Amino acid sequence: MKVDTDILVVDDEQVIRDAVTKICTAEGFRVAAAADAESAVALLEKQTFGLILCDIMMPNMDGFAFLKIALQKAPETPVIMATGFSTVENAVQSLTVGAADYIPKPFTFDELKSAIQRGFRYRLIREELAGIASGTTRDGTLVVPCPPRYRRLGHTSWVCLESDGTATVGVTHLFVRTIEQLIGVETVSLDGEIIQGTACAQIQTLDGLLHPVLSPISGRVVEVNTELKSFPAIIEKDPYFTGWLYHAIPTDVEYEIARLQPCGSDPLT
């Protein structure tokens, strides 16, 4: 779908707007900027955008209120939420209410670049799937559904509660498809802690970028999938079974599971 402008940056800090605009323009993107959510809504009335990067903490109308409006006015446009008040609640709420991704401030050039790359791939995948009823994309890749009994954090990661009280954690097929040429996976160590809404692993791609995987739950890791070190591609081939990341003992499972979404609650999953 042709868009008027590639990226809309919404942030009340001019230094952030200027920095993101400079970086994205240097990467060849057409960028528009808004100093507040109200101005951004006005732009949505007049233009179409390929991607939106929006701050959460803004005066008058905050990022969550803007996200709700953006999802109504431009549902095809992915929104990446960002904030300097980086909390677990912000990350989880962002992904639960419909953001395509979440990036904490301050972010580096590479962190911004990887998030934008995933955002545009996410849009492309949505467009491909919207017009295809057969369950395959134009490149012939099968859409792998997340098992119904799993719960997910946005479209990033999933968790499955096992009968022995442990939880299996992994990456969604959609998240894997938003990155290209996966070459490695960095995981936490055995007995390490993972925290809901924060990075529990990073996926490395051939272009040198690292893509953080936000954990769907908190807990202590009791087993790491050692196959990932030698065969990282199993995440792409079988993300919901042999491509799992961790087995963990959850620390607050009832509270955290309630904040997640059931797999199958969105056509993309």
Give a brief description:
By secondary structure, the protein is an alpha/beta fold. The chain has helices at about 15-25, 35-45, 65-75, 90-95, 110-130, 175, 225-230, 235, 255, and strands at about 5-10, 30-35, 50-55, 80-85, 100-105, 150-155, 155-160, 165-170, 180-185, 195, 200-205, 210-215, 220-225, 245-250, 260.
Question: Roughly what percent helix?
Answer: 25-40%
CATH homologous superfamily grouping of the largest domain: Response regulator
Number of helical segments with 4 or more residues: 9
CATH uppermost class of the largest domain: Alpha Beta
In the CATH classification, which architecture of the largest domain applies? 3-Layer(aba) Sandwich
Number of strands: 15
- Helix-strand pattern, N to C? EHEHEHEHEHEEEHEEEEEHHEHE
CATH fold type of the largest domain? Rossmann fold
Morphology: globular
Distance between the termini: 22 Å
The Cα radius of gyration reads 18 Å
Largest sheet: number of strands, sense, barrel closure: 7 strands, antiparallel
Strand percentage: 25-35%
How would you describe this protein?
There is one protein chain. By secondary structure, the chain is of the alpha/beta class. It has two domains: 126 residues, 3-Layer(aba) Sandwich (Rossmann fold); 112 residues, OB fold (Dihydrolipoamide Acetyltransferase, E2P) (Beta Barrel). It contains nine helices and 15 strands. The protein has a seven-stranded antiparallel sheet with strand order 10-13-14-8-7-6-15. Helix 1 links the parallel strand 1 and strand 2. Helix 2 runs parallel beside helix 3. The radius of gyration is 18 Å and the shape is globular. It starts with a strand and ends in a 7-residue tail after the last strand. The model has no long low-confidence stretch (mean pLDDT 91).
